[in-house]
């Protein structure tokens, strides 16, 4: 089953996700920018700031950040977002709009990581704010497949010991008891966001009913 998007189509999905997310962020109140998310201690502000860092990074800047983080990859990602989030919200949104249309990726990554990052963190923001943010199933499927096969960076979460079956697109992985649901919900489950996955599964059940 071929699930990987062609490069041009993949970038179109990245551009769509960045554009619609920037539109959402632009309409937030000051209080909403400070809403906690399920990404550790990141608020909406830090998650949004993180999403343009990769496309603006160079090998030199990443090396500098790694030295500052004393070689810790996760610390580097965390701390760079915290620093970037100190900018005015207009600048955070402006950076996200500025990388829309760019084909640059973070050093040592591919366009598939760019799509995975913006799809999942777009959900983090929307779920924290109580919003529904639809994702085209082909984009969510490509991101889910990337997570399923990823070796670097190492996952912080274990893969579910289940057979995951998407109900809105052709995709199934794993073995064991079946977990069926929309592909975006399965993607959230794969990325260690079970609460977000349950919200997607519950929404799908209501629609079916």
Layout of helices and strands:
Blueprint: H1 7-26, H2 30-33, H3 44-56, H4 59-68, H5 73-84, H6 89-99, H7 111-129, H8 137-149, E1 163-166, E2 172-174, E3 178-181, H9 183-190, H10 194-208
Parallel strand pairs: 1-3
Antiparallel strand pairs: 1-2
Helix pairs in contact: 1-6, 1-7, 3-5, 3-6, 3-7, 7-8, 8-9, 9-10
Q: Please, could you describe this protein's structure?
A:
The chain is mainly alpha-helical and 209 residues long. The protein has one domain. Helix content is 60%, strand content 5%. The chain has helices spanning 7-26, 30-33, 44-56, 59-68, 73-84, 89-99, 111-129, 137-149, 183-190, 194-208; strands spanning 163-166, 172-174, 178-181. It has a three-stranded mixed sheet. The longest helix is centred in the N-terminal third of the chain and has 20 residues, at 7-26. The model has no long low-confidence stretch (mean pLDDT 91).
Short description:
By secondary structure, this protein is mainly α.
Any key phrases for this structure?
three-stranded mixed sheet
What string gives the helices and strands in order? HHHHHHHHEEEHH
Instruction: Look at the helices and sheets and give the structural class.
Output: mainly alpha
- Spatial strand sequence of the major β-sheet: 2-1-3
Indicate the percent of residues in helices.
55-70%
End-to-end separation: 30 Å
Largest sheet: 3 strands, mixed
Counted up, domains total 1
Q: How much strand?
A: 5-15%
In the predicted model, the low-confidence regions spanning at least 5 consecutive residues are: none
Helical segment count? 10
Report the count of strand segments.
3
| Tertiary shape | globular
């Amino acid at each position: 089953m071929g699930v990987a998007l062609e490069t041009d189509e993949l970038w179109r999905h990245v551009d769509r996700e960045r554009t619609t997310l920037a539109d959402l962020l632009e309409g937030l109140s000051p209080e909403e920018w400070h809403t906690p998310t399920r990404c550790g201690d990141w608020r909406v502000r830090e998650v949004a700031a993180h999403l343009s860092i990769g496309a603006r990074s160079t090998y030199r800047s990443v090396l500098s950040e790694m030295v500052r983080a004393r070689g810790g990859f996760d610390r580097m990602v965390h701390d760079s977002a915290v620093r970037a989030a100190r900018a005015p919200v207009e600048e955070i949104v402006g950076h996200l709009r500025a990388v829309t249309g760019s084909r640059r990726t973070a050093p040592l990554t591919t366009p598939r990581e760019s799509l995975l990052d913006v799809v999942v963190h777009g959900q983090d923001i929307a779920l924290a704010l109580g919003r529904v943010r639809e994702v085209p199933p082909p984009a969510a499927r490509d991101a889910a497949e990337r997570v399923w096969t990823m070796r670097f960076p190492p996952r912080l979460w274990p893969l579910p010991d289940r057979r995951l079956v998407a109900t809105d697109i052709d995709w199934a992985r794993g073995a064991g008891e079946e977990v069926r649901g929309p592909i975006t919900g399965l993607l959230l489950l794969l990325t260690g966001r079970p609460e977000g996955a349950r919200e997607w599964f519950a929404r799908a059940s209501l629609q079916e009913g």
